[in-house]
Amino acid sequence: MRKIFIGLLIVTLYASCNNNHEAKHEASKYPITNPIQKDTVINKEYVSQIHSIRHIEIRAIEKGYLKQIFVDEGQSLKKGQMMFNIMPNIYKADFLKAKAEEKVTEIEYQNTKLLADENIVSKNELAMAKAKYDIAKAEVLLAQTHLDFTDIRAPFDGIMDHLHVREGSLLDEGELLTTLSDNSKMWVYFNVPEAEYLDYITSAKKNEKQQVTLLMANNKPFPEKGIVETIEGEFNNETGNIAFRATFSNPDGILRHGETGNIVLTIPMKNAVIIPQKATFEIMDKRYVYVVDANNVIKQREIQVIAELENIFIVGKGLSKNDKILLDGIRKVKNNEKIESEYLNPKTVFSNLKLFAE
C-alpha cells in the first residue's frame, strides 16, 4: 500500500512539474505583428491670430478742438453714424468766404459773357472770367471738404475700440481718435511648416476650398467652419513656415480682433504606416521599435513618428508594412536576443485599439 502511495506521489509531482514547464514555456512567447498601411487623415493644430476683416484707425483729418463725442467705447456703429465733431467755426467761415467769392466771380463771368456776345470784349477776356469763376467754385468745394472733415462718421458697420482723446482736446492733423473693427467676418492667420505645406498643397483638390475648425482660447470649437482662402507667397527664412489665412463668418459677434486660438487642419495621408504606441520605446528623445527577423532575433530600430493619434503612431521613416515588430514585453527583452514569438494578425491587434483613422 505504501508503494502505491509513493508511486502516485511521484506521478503527481511529475505531472505538476510538466504543467509548470508548459505554462512557463507558453508564457515566454512574445506577441508580434505587422504595421498596417492605409490611407488616413490626421488633425494638426496651429497657433493662430484672429483679425477683423476690416480694422482701421479713425484719425482727425483737421486741426481743432474736439467739440463733441457721440459714441462710446465698445459700441456697435452703423455706416455713416456720427462719431466726433471738431469745432467747425474757422472752417465754416472759410466756406462762407469761398461761397461769397464764388458769387462775385459768377456775376463777373455772366457780365463778361453778355459783353462778349455783343463783341464788346474779346474771347480772351471771357475765358479769363470763366477761369476765375472755375477757381472760385473749386475753392468752395475745398472749403466744403474741410468743413465736412470736422464731422467724423463711421465708414462702415463695426465695433468701436477705446477712445484715445476726450472732449475739449486740442487735436493735431492725423491724431488717432479710436479704431473701428468690422467683425462680420474674421481672418485667422496661422503658420504651417514647409513639409506640412507640401503635404497639404499636393493633396488638395483643385478649385476646392479646405475647411478648417477654430478652437477658441477656452478650447471649445467655434460654431462656424472656416475656409482656407489664401496662402502667402513666400516662406519665412528664419522659421521655415508659410502663413495661411482662413475666413470665418462671425454672425453672433463672438470673435473679436486680436484674439488667439488654434486652427485644426485635416491633412490626408496616403499609404500611411501605422503602429500601436505600446510597441515603441524612447531612448534620448528618439523612438524605437524591436523588429523581429526570420530567425526570431529582435533588432532595435529607430523610427520617425510624424503624427500621433489615440493609441497609435503614424511612422514616416524606419518601418514598412512587411516588418514584424514586437508588440508586448519590450522591457523584458534585450537587443539581438532570440525569442519565441506568437504572430497576431494586425487586424485583430488594431481592432482592440481606439483607432480614429479613417
Q: What does this entry show, briefly?
A:
This protein is an alpha+beta fold and 358 residues long. It has helices at 2-27, 89-117, 123-148, 194-203, 346-351; strands spanning 29-33, 36-59, 64-69, 76-77, 82-86, 151-153, 158-160, 170-171, 176-193, 210-216, 226-231, 241-249, 260-276, 280-283, 286-292, 298-309, 312-317, 324-326, 340-343.
Describe the structure.
A hairpin with a 5-residue loop joins strand 15 (286-292) and strand 16 (298-309). Helix 2 packs antiparallel against helix 3 (123-148). The protein is elongated and about 125 Å long. With 358 residues, the protein is of the alpha+beta class. The chain contains five helices and 19 strands.
Shape: elongated
| Low-confidence spans | 1-16, 20-27
Name the strands of the widest sheet in spatial order: 2-9-12-11-10-13
Number of strands: 19
Residues in helix, %: 25-40%
Query: Can you give the mean pLDDT?
Result: 86
What oligomeric state do these chains adopt?
Answer: single chain
Percentage beta strand = 35-45%
What gap, in angstroms, lies between the N and C termini? Answer: 71 Å
List keywords for this structure.
alpha+beta, six-stranded antiparallel beta barrel, 19 strands, 27% helix, disordered N terminus
Topology record:
Layout: H1 2-27, E1 29-33, E2 36-59, E3 64-69, E4 76-77, E5 82-86, H2 89-117, H3 123-148, E6 151-153, E7 158-160, E8 170-171, E9 176-193, H4 194-203, E10 210-216, E11 226-231, E12 241-249, E13 260-276, E14 280-283, E15 286-292, E16 298-309, E17 312-317, E18 324-326, E19 340-343, H5 346-351
Parallel strand pairs: 1-19
Antiparallel strand pairs: 1-18, 2-9, 2-13, 3-5, 3-8, 4-7, 5-6, 7-9, 9-12, 10-11, 10-13, 11-12, 13-17, 14-15, 15-16, 15-18, 16-17
Helix pairs in contact: 2-3
